[in-house]
Amino acid sequence: MAVCLIFLSLFLFPGYGKCFSTPSQDLDWKLGQTVGGVEFYYAITSCKGSSTVFHKINNKNAYPVQIAWKEVFDTQAEKSVEGYNGQKKLLVQPGETYETDCMNPTHKALVTLASSAIPTYIATITKFNYKDVTVIRMN
Prior knowledge:
This protein is mainly beta. It has two helices and nine strands, in the order αββββββββαβ. It has helices at residues 2-12, 114-117; strands spanning 30-35, 38-47, 50-59, 65-75, 81-82, 88-92, 97-99, 111-113, 125-137.
């Protein structure tokens, strides 16, 4: 019976399963870096009441790449603090642009909530930088 109710609730309330269900956003993308034919953009905004950094990755190469990066934040309390999540990785197909926003968190690596980046206090992210960016050709 419980399984049936959960199944029906997904059809009756289609937004119920989405972890970030807010209206679509017009993000102010800023180019952070270009490394090995890959453009790394970011946007700082609010999502679900939390300061959030969204990423957009544009692979301008004709081949797939594995990218990796670390995140560095300025907050109301600290400058140049490295994110708690460590290194992030993502495989990006040739010519593809991967991006996310509050409504469409398709790639978890492309969303950083302040609460997961800096779990020791309620942070407001004021500035963002990429660190230790690598781009590796995958063929």
